[in-house]
């Protein structure tokens, strides 16, 4: 599948390993006229940009700084500008790919851009390509089966501890994103709920030389995991019973 | 990454489109000595086998029938036999890839084989490669953002309606697998909970000529979606508020 003239593609490139990109994503990136990559805060190459470096040749690469703020107005204004740019270029017949780490439909800022574009470009000229999300790469690296049979898995940010405690009681597997900012609070919460032994921390998954895979029991209180760390808590199993319904 | 002699790889190949395979999966499949593919019930090629057809050349392809039964004993016996075979071949220095539709860590029968192999092969000779799960492909095809900001997403089978009703109340996005067997019961449940309008059904996602994407409101009572259909229900949003915590 080559990128079509005048079309826009939101493309997930997986967790950061260049070979965890899908064949479809690779072909679209290789064939598009313009590639939009996130700009890193510190002036270095972003992880998404690094991930696709081997696929870049003659394409125009445009860095886009997404606002690292929770101010909804500022975020929307910034993406409105980008939407303007995309519509102008697509109108001139260029093919455009926006790359995003992970999967575009899972906690990705490209949702804002797509919302704006869907009004202006129309659905037929917009495409989304799924990517491997960090939790999947983390589970694979840990060898931790996320769900079997009747299991329920919940994925959420670790930031609201009250909501995390609720979720612990209503699923077999809990996956927490952004666990890095409140690791000691999470440890206390897991211990209180008898779940500390079943928790594994994954930082910088699939990133060469930086990856950390560690049971939460062995994580030192002063360990700095990076904001984007993932915590996987395997609470239990909901197996089939003889009647074919769930047996808790 | 080429497949190493004496190593075993559980490889996810995505939802069924050959180009939604990752580069890593493709290279491992191309380079392995033996490929284990699921055998379909009806004697035809399985979806996983079809998905990787273009990557097959001189490799030995072994079809494996996994028991379509909820009898745990039978399932384990069947996989024990396969584990025996894998260990014997790996012991002779062959590289082996087991392919699985979707992601090996998400409702995949290969979990049984991996559990048996981990005791016998040891972790260093076993590898898992994540794949795009059907819910991700479904969300991308629908253009339905699964999670943003503080949203919680729960993934579960649709088979236990009581558990489904509970889940509807404790997440922003509910993804139901195996929705095909109880579609009318699900419709009634969603209607009762004021969620019918936010539900979309996806069948045979990314399968050429067979794919169905449809709002549940428009699904006829006699529609036969196939057992593996996915239902995505977007209940609401949990946005950041000014203090940086979740605002329901």
Characterize the structure shown.
The structure is a homodimer of 248-residue chains. The first copy, chain A, has 248 residues and is an alpha/beta fold. Chain A contains 7 helices and 12 strands. Chain A has helices spanning 23-31, 47-51, 72-91, 110-120, 134-142, 161-168, 183-192, and strands at 8-12, 34-38, 60-64, 96-100, 126-129, 153-157, 173-177, 199-203, 212-215, 230-234, 239-240, 246-247. In chain A, strands 3-2-4-1-5 form a 5-stranded parallel beta sheet, sandwiched between helices. The first copy, chain A, has a 5-stranded mixed beta sheet with strand order 6-7-10-8-9, sandwiched between helices. In chain A, strands 11-12 form a two-stranded antiparallel ribbon. In chain A, α3 (72-91) packs across α4. Chain A starts with 7 loop residues before the first strand and ends with a strand. Residues 242-248 of chain A have low confidence and may be disordered. At the A-B interface, α1, α4, β5, α5 and β6 of A face α1, α4, β5, α5 and β6 of B. β6 (153-157) of chain A pairs antiparallel with β6 of chain B.
* Number of strand segments of chain A: 12
Strand arrangement within the widest β-sheet of chain A reads 3-2-4-1-5
Shape of chain A: elongated
Order of helices and strands of chain A: EHEHEHEHEHEHEHEEEEE
Give a brief outline of the structure.
2 copies of one chain form a homodimer. The first copy, chain A, is α/β, with parallel strands linked by helices and 248 residues long.
Quickly list its features:
alpha/beta, five-stranded parallel sheet, five-stranded mixed sheet, 248 residues, homodimer, disordered C terminus
